[in-house]
Design goal:
The structure holds two protein chains of two kinds.
Chain A (H helix, E strand, L loop, with lengths): L1 E10 L2 E11 L4 E6 L5 H8 L7 E6 L2 E2 L5 H7 L1 E4 L11 H8 L7 H14 L1 H5 L10 H13 L5 E5 L7 H16 L3 E6 L2 H7 L2 E6 L2 E7 H5 L2 H8 L2
Parallel strand pairs in A: 3-8, 3-9, 6-7, 7-8
Antiparallel strand pairs in A: 1-2, 1-4, 4-5, 9-10
Helix pairs in contact in A: 3-6
Chain B lengths: L2 H37 L6 H17 L5 H24 L7 H23 L13 E4 L2 E4 H23 L1 H11 L1 H6 L4 H23 L9 H16 L4 H21 L8 H12 L11
Antiparallel strand pairs in B: 1-2
Classes of the chains: A alpha/beta, B mainly alpha.
Bound molecules: adenosine-5'-triphosphate and magnesium ion (MG).
Magnesium ion binds next to helix 1 of chain A.
């Protein structure tokens, strides 16, 4: 479904990603593990078209999407819940969600159905729907960010560290929700430092270090890998 | 009449005059702030779009014999298109270039538009004859119908703009891009489309303001420069990119000019803007309604 072939990305003259080869099959939940500054967000921003690869190709559902503008990529079926959430803080929660469905704006009935599903998934957002997104707690804002990405009805959902800054109990709920979204048919690429929780719900994973993919395998393989254990699970 | 009453009437007269001025300033500043909000581009050519709007209305009326309101509509529509053209031909190609390039381009556009106006209409000062010259008097405050129209039309335009930005999905994309650029990209909003639309609306507002003001001011090729300077003072006062800031800042400047013109010296009227500018830059450089840095 998604395939990155020899993708390198530069910030000015600094190369942050070196020849990344990564793929994700339809229906999969794949986790991208890596320490701070490893390059996870850079991969996500590149897939979404916010950054252009300096070399390499990106394929999504049979099309080469490298060089496409971000809005075209969303229309093609890739939505992202980005690092730092990037919400419209002065707008109401509801309006954030409606704008999340911007690419389907002509389909009013579909948007209404999607909203209903979102509110079933995140009941708290229904209670807060008329409040400014900026007035919500960090965890609630994180939910708005995920919900906003879901409103685009993506075939592939990119989640960049959705658990960051959340209380352990909320993190657990968050991961349950992500697993549920995936079971409902959305493919998910998840960046996480919380390797233990992420590997419990993921099918496969990659380990990224200093802009290079250094390990790839099934969740159980990664869970039992000494390096992953030492660096990310703390066992 | 006792002196107190006369003083009150004079004061109210100045308030009304200030509101008239403020209405015009606000409409121009709104356009600049909208463009700044989504492109971080100080459009120095905005005052010259205003000038072009005034001339087009004048032209439609004198050459083609259009009625005032029809002429305004044509002028606003034309400026809407010209604004979009500017975005497409001048500012979009510079989008990934250093910021200074766009600013220099804006100055270039300004010089170009002024030259075009001189070529087409000459350098003479002209006046647009309003069909609404009649004077009405309310509680001792005299005001021409034209001035009432300016105040009311500005309010209608501002309410209309607000409804468009808040209540329609397309309007919301402008606000979304101003509030979080990357967030807007990630929900699939097309940055180019939003920039185009914003430029069109901003230029259209300038044309509306200029056409409303033309009967009470003179029309000449360099008229945009002073309006532009004042509009920039207003958005520095109100906070760059802030919509309420542009509206309130506009009225503050209008009232300050009108009142100081009466009670201090009318020759210093244009100085008021710069005194306000210096004050605001020393006291609260981010402006009254600055958005929180995020
Ligand atoms: N805008 C930028 N300009 C220059 N360098 C950048 C920029 N953004 C990121 N980098 C560099 O690219 C590298 C990868 O950063 P990235 O944000 O992708 O890491 P990450 O894996 O997402 O980290 P974290 O877990 O902290 O979010 C880092 O060395 C970082 O310093
Ligand atoms: Mg990151």
């Amino acid at each position: 479904m998604l395939k990155l072939i020899d993708v390198s990305v530069k910030y000015g003259s600094y190369e942050a990603l070196h020849s990344i080869n990564l793929h994700l099959n339809e229906g999969e939940l794949v986790v991208l593990l890596g320490a701070n500054g490893a390059g996870k967000s850079t991969i996500f921003r590149t897939i979404s078209g916010l950054l252009q690869p300096s070399t390499g190709h990106i394929h999504f559902m049979g099309q080469s999407i490298g060089g496409w503008s971000p809005d075209r990529i969303v229309k093609a079926g890739i939505a992202q819940c980005p690092e730092g959430r990037k919400l419209f803080l002065d707008m109401s929660v509801l309006k954030n969600l409606i704008l999340g469905g911007y690419v389907h704006r002509k389909d009013k009935a579909g948007t209404a159905r999607m909203l209903k599903q979102i509110f079933e998934l995140f009941p708290i957002l229904y209670d807060k729907k008329d409040q400014a997104a900026g007035s919500l707690s960090g965890g609630q804002q994180q939910m708005v960010a995920i919900a906003r990405a879901l409103m685009a009805k993506p075939k592939l959902l990119l989640l960049d560290e959705p658990s960051v800054g959340l209380a352990p109990l909320v993190v657990e709920q968050m991961f349950e929700t992500i697993a549920e979204i995936n079971r409902n048919g959305t493919s998910v690429l998840l960046a996480e430092q919380n390797a233990y929780a992420a590997l419990q719900i993921a099918h496969r994973g990659y380990l990224i270090e200093n802009g290079r993919l250094v390990l790839e395998g099934s969740s159980s393989k990664l869970r039992n890998n000494e390096e992953v254990k030492r660096a990310y699970i703390g066992a | 009449m006792p002196l107190g009453v006369m003083e009150m009437e004079l004061f109210f007269q100045q308030i009304v005059n200030g509101l008239v001025l403020g209405s015009i300033y606000s409409l121009v500043a709104l356009g600049i702030t909208l463009i700044y909000g989504i492109m971080q581009l100080p459009n120095f050519a905005h005052g010259h779009l205003y000038m072009l709007g005034a001339y087009l209305t004048l032209w439609m009326m004198t050459i083609y014999g259009f009625r005032y309101w029809t002429a305004i509509l044509v002028s606003v529509a034309a400026l809407f298109l010209i604004g979009m053209l500017l975005e497409r031909l001048v500012f979009r190609p510079l989008h990934n270039a250093p910021h200074i390039n766009s600013m220099i381009a804006a100055v270039g556009v300004m010089l170009f538009l002024e030259a075009v106006a001189r070529k087409l209409w000459g350098s003479d000062y002209r006046r647009l004859d309003s069909p609404y010259g009649e004077v009405i008097s309310v509680f001792g405050v005299t005001i021409t119908q034209q001035r009432v129209i300016i105040i009311v039309a500005a309010i209608i335009l501002m309410i209309g703009l607000n409804l468009f930005l808040k209540r329609t999905v397309i309007g919301s994309t402008i606000e979304a891009m101003a509030q979080n650029r990357e967030g807007a990209f990630l929900v699939g909003i097309d940055a180019n489309k939003v920039s185009l639309l914003t430029f069109g609306i901003a230029a259209g507002l300038a044309a509306a303001a200029a056409s409303l003001a033309a009967p009470i001011n003179l029309v000449y090729p360099s008229m945009g420069a002073m309006v532009n300077l004042k509009a920039f003072v207003i958005i520095v006062l109100g906070g760059m990119g802030s919509i309420p800031g542009a509206v309130i800042g506009g009225y503050i400047l209008g009232l300050a000019e009108s009142i100081s013109g009466t009670y201090i010296n009318s020759e210093y009227k244009d100085l008021v803007a710069f005194v306000i500018l210096i004050l605001i830059l020393t006291v609260k450089p981010t402006g009254l309604f600055a958005k929180e840095a995020r």
